[in-house]
Write a sequence for this structure.
């Protein structure tokens, strides 16, 4: 199955391109972005060597679904989705922090807690918590937005003191983060899922805070199945989940955590196929829609034609 691992477009009005771990973002004059969700997959801030079929389409279409479903809470950057793997939107000045919100003690937060940490990003954690336990109320644990390498945990107070975000804008961003997470949890519950944790990115457009990038996708979020959650929690068993955490666990089990000298384990066809199926399963589960794979022998030709046509309408 064809996968999109790299892009090298030259769209009309193109000013620059940023190749991220998963997305390639093209800046188009005067103030438009073309964001292409590739089939690359990353974990522990490392891009893995093989692509995942339909992953880019899944991520882009889930993000579109939630951007539309939350536009009443906060304005967002999206203008159009001209291709299954592409979103075109407004170019904003990105804030230099990512807002991570957690409803449960799991993943990296649990690993830190296990190691004795009782405070994350200035948020104090109660003693005696167990893995996958629900917090009394969701906690916000921001990180810096690193240009390269690992993002770093940072507290609200440090963000404001360092001038990364003004106190006024941070208050808005924090309120938006809680409101978006509440909506995401409601929508997940309707589909028999628990939105466990997620991250949001924000920017300034004409001085106003807007939501940018993706939202509530399996790359930026963690979902548990609601059915059986309590029973598994009481028994101390791993939760059934729809997220990228199973990829991280597979890597950990095979001796890789992104540290120097470690080798990425071989990604067999069976493993790649299983990851693809997980992504499709999440799409169908969270949206309630049947996934319709866009199968094309030449993904780049299709994407280029669709984007060029879209830009004509925007810049007309």
């Amino acid at each position: 199955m064809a996968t999109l691992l790299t892009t090298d477009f030259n769209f009309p009005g193109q000013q620059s391109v940023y190749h991220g771990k998963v997305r390639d973002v093209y800046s188009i004059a005067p103030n438009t972005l073309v964001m292409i969700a590739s089939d690359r997959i990353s974990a522990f801030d490392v891009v893995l060597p093989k692509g995942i079929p339909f992953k880019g389409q899944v991520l882009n279409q889930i993000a579109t679904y939630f951007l539309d479903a939350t536009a009443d809470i906060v304005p967002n950057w999206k203008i159009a989705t001209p291709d299954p793997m592409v979103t075109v939107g407004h170019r904003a000045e990105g804030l230099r922090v990512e807002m991570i919100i957690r409803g449960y003690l799991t993943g990296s937060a649990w690993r830190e807690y296990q190691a004795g940490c009782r405070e994350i990003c200035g948020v104090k954690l109660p003693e005696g918590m167990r893995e996958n336990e629900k917090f009394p109320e969701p906690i916000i644990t921001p990180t810096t937005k690193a240009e390269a390498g690992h993002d770093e945990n940072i507290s609200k107070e440090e963000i404001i003191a360092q001038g990364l975000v003004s106190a006024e804008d941070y208050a808005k961003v924090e309120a938006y983060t809680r409101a978006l997470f509440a909506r995401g949890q409601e929508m997940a519950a309707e589909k028999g899922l628990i939105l466990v944790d997620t991250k949001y990115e924000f920017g300034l457009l004409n001085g106003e805070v807007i939501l940018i990038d993706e939202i509530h996708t399996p790359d930026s979020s963690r979902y548990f199945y609601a059915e059986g959650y309590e029973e598994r929690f009481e028994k101390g068993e791993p939760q059934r989940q729809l997220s990228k955490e199973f990829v991280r666990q597979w890597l950990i089990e095979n001796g890789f955590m992104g540290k120097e000298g470690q080798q990425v384990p071989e990604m067999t066809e069976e493993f790649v196929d299983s990851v693809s199926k997980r992504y499709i399963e999440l799409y169908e589960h969270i949206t309630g829609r049947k996934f319709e794979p866009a199968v094309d022998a030449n993904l780049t030709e299709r994407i280029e034609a669709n984007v060029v046509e879209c830009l004509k309408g925007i810049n007309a």
